[in-house]
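Page 47, continued from p. 46.
Same chain as before, 281 aa.
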Amino acid sequence: MLTTRHGVRPLGAADLHEFLALVELDPVVNVFADYRARTTNLEPRWLGGEVWGRFVDGRLVAACHVGANLVPIGATADDARAFAERALTRGRSVSTIVGPHEAVEVLWGHLASSWGRPRETRWRQPHLELARTPDVAPDPGVRRTTRADMGELYPACVAMYTEEVGVSPEQGGGAELYRARVTQLVSRGWSFARFDDGRLVFKAEVACASPHAAQVQGVWVPADRRGEGLAVTGMAAVAELVRAEIAPTVSLYVNEWNEPARRTYAAVGFEETARFSTVMF
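Result:
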């Protein structure tokens, strides 16, 4: 099989079985890659980019998703250097580099001088998992959202994204695309919220899922309702719903400096299993 320098080449549909075997070596940490592979069959036209594989003696040992996000998968420092060298042969097209800390650190160490100053870097973000009953009772008011909730849900999603990322998802004419993404999550049954007298007071979404895990994102409570425990019981409810109906393990990653969020997840019963890092452009 023809490979490029350092054994790196783009993967395709013929590689799907071997790729899934690779991601399943750490299926919760690799849930994003697993989800993308299963939904695109590793076809570039569906990926909106490529997945690169690194082969040693004809065996796939690591991979790297290269789309809107650059995500190393099962990569050692040596694998990350090989992926960085390939990335340097093309201009930066990704908006983030995200994944296990050690691989992201090596990737960025080789790409930084060519890819320019990032908008923000977040190192050593705790990656958390829950694969059992939560430690607190779930909020019975948390439910799946419907399209009828969009009047409350969409502004909350915009507010959460802006607060978390530092820029609005509507910036640069992105409102239509972002609304379509929120609507897609609602249609899949991956959006959850609690409403008090018609007002959204807690929300969270599943970003991606595989047979092994579901990754939660977008956890948010309005500023004037924080400190009431809504996120603790809300996340317990989301975890129960997800584990019963989507995947057996719930995962997420959180900024190291976000102590309130880390306390929330610890109270629910989430446990740290890895550290992620994110470089944002």
